[in-house]
Design brief:
The chain contains 2 helices and 26 strands. By secondary structure, the chain is mostly beta strands. The chain is globular and about 50 Å long. The two termini are 19 Å apart.
Length: 344
Amino acid sequence: MRKLFLPLAFLAISFASCNDDDSVVTTDPEPIDTTPTPAVELKLFTSSNTSGKISFTDLLSPTPTPKSFTVSSTDSDGVFYDPFKDQVIQASRTNNRVEAYSGFRNSIITSATSLNLTFSSASDFTNAREIAVSGDKVVVAQDQNAGNSNTSKFYVYQRNNDGFSLLNIYTVDIKLWGIHLEGNTMYAIADNTSDLVVYNNFLSNTTGAIVASKRVAIEGLVRTHGITYSTQDNVMILSDVGLASSATDGGLIVINNFSSVLNATANMETIAMSNQIRIYGPNSLLGNPVDVAYDHVTNDIYVAERLNGGGQVLKFSFPMSNGDFAPQTARTEAGVTAVYLLRR
């Protein structure tokens, strides 16, 4: 998936002092306060490929209640919220463009039922499957199909105050779906496989074909779609849709200490099940989990489950062992395809 959330965690550090005659006075150090600063915003956004709506939940509300807003695209895949520009961004599969909707907070205050399109990119791509954002760069993953000559590409845009400028187009030799951009490192899944692909120095490339820095398989995973990574916890989370026709064979895979695990796995080799924590089974309600987000403070995992019940937004506690765990919460959302969590 995409950039998961904006972190806000500070450590207060106290120092020992010296007296006036420059002799050192030894004192016991003040204890370090590791309590996270309370979040200013904790918001969950989702988009759909059937409803023409974006949903929003204020998770800091005493009674978090989803609100939905009509947007310019019936079919969307990929959603992001920028709290500084107060702007919702999505990849439109209906219009084949990146769309920006500004003034979101005012839409909440005024109880609006729709969002006003502020600006969009040109219709550069087809069959978008995800977006990832790093600073002022927005990346769209185009999945190969007959409409684009079976070519998977990354479209890299510069986001300005009044529009999107197409900077580069990268052609890749994998079938794209979920992506996550961490600084200048792109993590992508290879659809129809169990593979995770890494592109280092991603934004430094020029237009043309690019080659993966590393590709590894995930043992026991059938077909991955959703992806997110937390630098704070060094945790990678992947979703497994299994068979697209089955509403009961999906799962989540958590890889702790991810950077070390990835570094210890040679290119084209496999990350073993012994390095995974897995949630699978009918109690999980996971059939086709197509996107995933993670809160590094509460350790909650949010999932866009596309097939089960026609679409559901699920929340899981962080698993400490393998199991068939039921979600903490589950709510119906028709056609849900993307989930984005903002914490700041």
